Amino acid sequence: IYGYAGTTLRIDLTDEKIVKEPLKQEWVDGYIGGRGFTAKILFDENPPEVDPYEGDNIFIIAMGPLSGHLLPASGKTHFCTKSPATGGYGDSNMGGHFGVNMKYAGYDVMILKGKAKQQSYIFIEDDNVEIRPAQQYWGKGSTQVEEELKKELGEDFQILTIGPAGENLVKFACISHDFGRQAGRIGIGAVLGSKNIKAIAVKGTKSIPVFDPAGLLQKGKETYAACRAKPGFTAWTPQGTAGITDWCNNVGALPTRNFKTSYCDYADKINGQAILKELKITDKGCFACPIPCGKYGFAKTKLGNAYVEGPEYETLSLLGSNCEVKDIHEIAYLNYICDELGLDTCSGGAVVSFALECYEKGLISKEDMGMDVKFGDLESIVHILKIITERKGIGNALADGVKAAAEVVGNDSDKFAIHVKGLEWTGYESRNAPGMMLGYMTADIGAHHGRCWVLGNDVAGSADAGNVTDLITSEQNTTTLSKAKHEHVVPIVLKSQHTRPAFDILGTCRLQYMEIGLETDYYEDLFYTITGKKIKWDELLKLSEKIWTLNRMYNFREISDFGRKYDYPPARFYEEPIPDGPNKGHFIALDVIEQMLDEYYSARGWDNNGYPTEETLINFGLA
Ligand code: SF4
């Protein structure tokens, strides 16, 4: 099939059975690739109500039709499994060079099932696939193992690893690759750990059939040139995501002190400029990326020094201001510690800040914590990250995320456990941002900015969406907002929620479109030269909508009491006005949240409990 390697690799770790089968035409025709494949496969093949850590929970890696070709940023790899963090649909993607090599080895999709009898790693070199012992790597840090495996196998192998957090089933353990790229959030690394798999090494040397090679070469060149000609190229590339830090602080969206407030007076010490001045050695990009957003640097702290990629904005905000760390070297060092332990820096920062607030309020004892801890103290934060990884003392509860930890801590701590569906909120405080708030609330995997990002519309308004800031309630004005204003929010949230999966389906990075404004026509043309099939961007958006509906159904199937109550933000966001900064006094009242949910469900064709109606399921061919 043009654009695809053509094979699905199935590995049953329990029976040590390796099966290669032709890529299903039904998947290609109905779901195209990447996130489309994973949503379909997880729904169809994962046993209903399986425990995420049982061997039967499948672990999927999928590439898209645009992956691995000579076009900008075609190196995204998509991972999926039932999430231990939420109990529902979970996926994550990662840049670097792993998936491209998997495709060059001949596989569009890899599905792992079962549990290896001993600690193992998977070795793939084109047709040769083996499950190899990995006792010598168990217990070691992610980056260290990547380095050692490259020494053992050769530099041209692409390696993904888990750290000790994945081995110990921490529910926000991630997968690491390429010395600083991660697939994180939903506990994907813990599921690999539960299967006794420490790493996967792959090297591929085959070709992928293309419909019009000369046309692709021409279009690929044009697309690179277009990226580099955009004004956004010079604005975005030098700092990458860290470049947004000051803006977020100035609009009052920078999470600070466990989302107590949304502004800090030291943003200039932890922003993109600080990275360039203090840390950066070189830019670093994923496969075929013309706008490398990775910043590789060197951090020096009183606890040690480290080479590290990052920190990106999410890490700056969640391990930085949200934990009150005011020094860019210290944030970068914490980034390094998380990478080595195999912890997601978003959830890691959010869980640590929750623990610090609990400790400050006297809800966690010094004995349970293992030492005296405080906001802003590097030693305290490193200690908490380590007890989480080792599941020691209160670290055992924290390792299950803030939702579960709040149940252990009690005393209304759930009000400041900042999550949706069990997934910690990422780096955008949203009491001043109704669109972001709704986007986080309704995301299939839980609170994740990767599912929706409309902060620009929220705080600045826009020509097509109108200014939605009137939805925000202040202490002086708690009246419900007009329907006219609500109607601006849902369309912009839906548009963002549908645009993002399109890139995950195709197998490319979305930042060329989102950050520098590359037009979607390029993707339509590239798709045609690669696959020989015509597709309109609107058709991709329609598929995105179908996937959102399918994943919603997956969550209803897997979580017995799933429904509207899983779509609310934490109480802090509707009960506590922001105490200071540019949005002092602001919050979004619960009745506004209820109205936004009603309008969102209605626009999606879901009932009042967020369950897709029969008509909606029929419309998408999902009945
Ligand atoms: Fe990777 Fe950043 Fe380039 Fe996207 S923009 S492909 S994340 S380096």
Question: Please, could you describe this protein's structure?
Answer:
This protein is of the alpha+beta class and 623 residues long. The chain has three domains: 7-203, Aldehyde ferredoxin oxidoreductase, N-terminal domain (Aldehyde Ferredoxin Oxidoreductase,  A, domain 1); 242-424, Aldehyde Ferredoxin Oxidoreductase Protein, subunit A, domain 2; 434-619, Orthogonal Bundle (Aldehyde Ferredoxin Oxidoreductase Protein, subunit A, domain 3), CATH 1.10.599.10. Strands 2-1-6-3-4-5 form a six-stranded mixed sheet. A six-stranded mixed sheet has the order 8-7-12-9-10-11, with helices on both faces. Helix 2 (34-45) packs parallel to helix 23 and helix 11 (313-320) packs across helix 12. The structure holds iron/sulfur cluster. Iron/sulfur cluster binds at residues 73, 95, 285-286, 289, 291-294, 509, 511. Iron/sulfur cluster (SF4) is lined by residues 73, 95, 285-286, 289, 291-294, 509, 511.
What's the helix and strand layout?
Layout: E1 7-12, E2 17-22, H1 25-31, H2 34-45, E3 59-62, E4 77-82, E5 89-94, H3 98-104, E6 109-113, E7 120-125, E8 128-133, H4 142-153, E9 158-161, H5 164-167, E10 175-177, E11 181-183, H6 188-194, E12 197-203, H7 213-229, H8 231-236, H9 245-250, H10 272-279, E13 280-284, E14 294-301, E15 304-309, H11 313-320, H12 328-341, H13 345-360, H14 366-369, H15 378-390, H16 395-398, H17 401-409, E16 419-420, E17 423-424, H18 434-442, H19 455-460, E18 473-474, H20 483-506, H21 511-514, H22 521-531, H23 537-558, H24 572-575, E19 586-587, H25 590-604, H26 614-619
Parallel strand pairs: 1-6, 7-12
Antiparallel strand pairs: 1-2, 3-4, 3-6, 4-5, 7-8, 9-10, 9-12, 10-11, 13-14, 14-15, 16-17, 18-19
Helix pairs in contact: 1-2, 2-20, 2-23, 7-22, 11-12, 11-13, 12-15, 18-20, 20-23, 20-25
The chain binds iron/sulfur cluster.
